[in-house]
UniProtKB/TrEMBL annotation:
Species annotation: Maribacter dokdonensis
Keywords in alphabetical order: Signal
The name this protein goes by in its record: Ca-activated chloride channel family protein
Keyword Signal: yes
Domain annotation VIT: ranges: 21-149
Xref: SUPFAM superfamilies: vWA-like
Organism superkingdom: Bacteria
InterPro entries: VIT, VWF_A, vWFA_dom_sf
Lineage summary: Bacteria, Pseudomonadati, Bacteroidota, Flavobacteriia, Flavobacteriales
Length: 715
């Protein structure tokens, strides 16, 4: 029996209400196709402020011809991807890092020679592409991707984000054709086409106060006061169609500050994190003018636009009566709320919200044009500072062009960004704010919109630390990853990555200004944590340095590219110019025939089909539904139960679905080695042993079963 889900191209475009046709195309689930991605599992181990993450992707070929799978997926914008493994028939192949063009040659040569191979490359700091070639009929190939990142708290709250899906991108303003954004999408409402799971082990080093997730239902266990184990609950529906966002607090909203040190064979690395004093009172805060630039394109239609309205109302209500504002809506073109800036009062706020409500989502996302229009708008008072507040899901492909435009107009306005939605383009949202030395905020729900509006008000009202400088005495630090430290407005610590020579002793001195007062804080290096377990500091330093060189620049020369390549090769890091390739030396496809298959991506949660340039009716019969429920009556741990359930569905789904077409229920008994030893069917009100059915089930075993256990399966 072939897989019960595949995808059919829908090419009905609505002029004026669709994105550019170069955007990803829409697919609807039907029967009889090859879905190469079997599962994607993310496991994170957070130790202090550093997250160590492994993403395991399993590719399969259920067809009759060799295939090459292509899968586009996101990772954190801060991820330092430093290792990749490929597992074929229990053989472990360690991927090697190459310059991007050389990686392509190595991969293509291996495929032409009939060898199984995998190539991982970066298209954006948050968009990656996996190619796995010569997946033979019946093959299952496992890819493990390893990355690290540092978690930086805001207002005493830590956040771990595991992006799940790359949202559709509008490419109409781009001058380049990018294949990574021409991927198929499942229609809104279609269930996941692959198994998806996330688990986190949090070793905070301090007493954990609270762990929560607004994106997913989670189950949290606390082995002790400083440790938490987090898994997705079974109640989650289509968990792969939105970013996993987990937040946690430590007791008393304390944060991990101080110095981490690592002594390597050739280089020593440090990471210094310091929280400035928040007891700041500023008088005579000047008035400002605010231009709210709101995305009403097709991808914002519906729920995202509703969140934007809630956010706008809260943002306007948080401003001071001495401020002025205007609202600009943009999609394929821009429209203005008022010809001139207006005062903050109840009448103007209500009128602005009505204006936004009338701006229904539709059309392409002409971000560059919207920014250019905004910069040209006349000022009411040249002595008053202007802030542009961009509200969008970020589904565009012109990130670096936007960064360059903002960088060239830093004297005109500061740019704040609000990302709206379940799977926002964080590279754009974070990058626009970073280039402007301001702050970005994310709102996935109306409730979060109210909270981030308050955070924004606090941010613009109380700059905590400006003109920040860091120096040392008796501590020979050098090669800091960032050339300068931005002003600290939000309750966010100062974080510095660098190298050092000699002994870890002396002092680190941070200076700056809090309001009109001079700030100075001294830290003793000997109080730092020197440990071999801090090896990730080398990856984090190199990733930060690469980000400063390449991520947020558009016009870079060959010298910068060469430096990024050198960093990638030296520190074994995936970059815009380096890629990982793994080659299994066994020749399995001698005649070289190969079918290329693109892995369909889930439509991001609360995003309508119009976001990908096509609108079509999705019939309920095309929706892939869970065909049976699993009941485990035996006493087993939650994490074991969860693993067993997932493994069983992966191994037995087809077989069980077939038999449940004939019988109301099945009962399957495993022995302690994971072998099926008894199968019963429920027929005419009784359980009946079926030996022929046992012959089908006993061919497969489940590794997670460690004792005798019985499962009941119902439609």
């Amino acid at each position: 029996m072939k897989l019960l889900y595949t995808f059919l191209l829908c090419a009905i475009c609505f002029a004026g209400f669709s994105q550019d046709t170069d955007s990803p195309y829409l697919l609807v689930s039907t029967e009889n196709a090859t879905i190469p991605l079997k599962s994607s599992i993310t496991e994170a181990n957070i130790a202090g402020t550093i997250a160590h993450v492994r993403v395991t992707q399993v590719y399969q070929n259920k067809g009759t011809e060799p295939i090459e799978a292509k899968y586009v997926f996101p990772l954190s914008t801060q991820a330092a991807v430093h290792k990749m493994h490929m597992i074929v028939d229990d053989r472990l192949v360690v991927a090697k890092i190459f310059e991007k063009q050389e990686a392509k040659k190595v991969y293509d040569t291996a495929i032409e020679e009939g060898k199984r191979a995998a190539k991982l490359e970066q298209h954006r700091p948050n968009v990656f592409q996996m190619n796995v070639g010569n997946i033979m009929p019946g093959d299952e190939i496992t890819i493990d991707i390893y990355y690290t990142e540092m978690l930086v708290p805001v207002n005493g709250e830590y956040q771990f984000v595991a992006p799940a899906v790359v949202g559709p991108r509008f490419t109409g303003e781009s001058t380049e054709t990018e294949g990574s954004f021409a991927m198929p999408y499942t229609a809104k409402g279609i269930a996941d086409s692959f198994d998806f799971d996330i688990s986190v082990r949090l070793n905070a080093g301090m007493v954990i106060q609270h762990v929560n997730s607004a994106s997913h239902e989670i189950t949290v266990d606390y082995p002790d006061a400083k440790t938490a184990e987090i898994v997705l609950s079974e109640e989650n529906k289509n968990p792969s169609n939105r970013d996993f966002i987990m937040k946690y607090n430590l007791r008393g909203n304390q944060i991990q500050t101080g110095l981490l040190l690592y002594e390597g064979e050739e280089e020593n690395f440090f990471s210094f994190q310091m929280e400035p004093n928040m007891n700041v009172v500023l008088d005579d805060i000047p008035s400002r003018e605010y231009l709210f630039i709101v995305d009403v394109s097709g991808s914002m239609n519906g729920y995202p636009l509703e969140v934007s309205r809630t956010l706008m109302r809260n943002l306007l209500c948080e401003l001071r009566m001495t401020d002025t504002f205007n609202v600009q809506l943009f999609a394929s073109s821009s429209t203005m709320f008022s010809e001139v800036l207006v005062e903050i009062n109840e009448q103007n706020i209500e009128a602005a919200i009505r204006f936004l409500s009338e701006g229904q989502g539709g059309g392409g996302t002409q971000l560059l044009s919207a920014l250019q229009t905004a910069y040209k708008l006349p000022r009411k008072d040249m002595s008053v500072a202007r802030s542009m507040v961009v509200i969008t899901d970020g589904y565009v492909s012109v990130e670096k062009e936007a960064f360059e435009l903002i960088r060239n107009n830093l004297d005109q306005a500061s740019v704040f960004t609000f990302g709206i939605g379940s799977s926002v383009n964080r590279y754009l949202v974070e990058g626009m704010a970073k280039v402007s030395n301001s702050e970005s905020f994310i709102a996935t729900t109306s409730e979060e919109a109210a909270e981030v509006a308050k955070d924004f008000a606090n941010y613009i009202a109380t700059p905590l630390l400006t003109r920040v400088k860091i120096e040392s005495k008796g501590f020979d630090m050098y090669d800091l990853a960032q050339k300068s430290i931005p002003d600290v407005f939000a309750a966010r610590p100062v974080v510095v990555h660098g190298k050092y020579k000699g002994k870890a002793e002396g002092k680190i001195i941070v200076t700056g200004y809090q309001g009109k007062k001079r700030f100075r804080q001294v830290y003793n290096v000997t109080d730092g944590q020197l440990s071999k377990q801090n090896k990730a500091l080398g990856y984090l330093w190199a990733r930060k340095r690469i980000g400063e060189l390449d991520d947020y620049k558009k016009l870079f020369n060959e010298d910068v590219k060469a430096e990024v390549v050198a960093l990638g090769l030296k520190y074994n890091l995936l970059t815009n110019y380096t890629s990982f390739v793994a080659v299994d030396e066994a020749i399995v496809n001698k005649d070289g025939t190969l079918t290329k298959v693109k892995q369909p991506l889930p439509m991001p949660d609360n995003v309508n089909n119009s976001a990908v340039g096509a609108e079509a009716e999705v019939k309920e019969t095309s929706k892939f539904k869970r065909t049976f429920n699993i009941i485990i009556e035996d006493e087993i741990a939650k994490n074991v139960k969860r693993q067993l359930t997932m493994e069983f569905k992966v191994m037995y789904a087809k077989l069980v679905s077939e038999y449940l077409k004939k019988y109301e229920s099945l009962r399957i008994k495993f022995n302690a080695q994971g072998k099926v030893i008894r199968v019963e069917k429920f027929e005419n009100g009784s359980w009946i042993v079926d030996e022929s059915m046992l012959l089908d089930f006993e061919k497969i075993s489940i590794k997670s079963v460690k004792k005798e256990i019985t499962l009941t399966l119902k439609k």
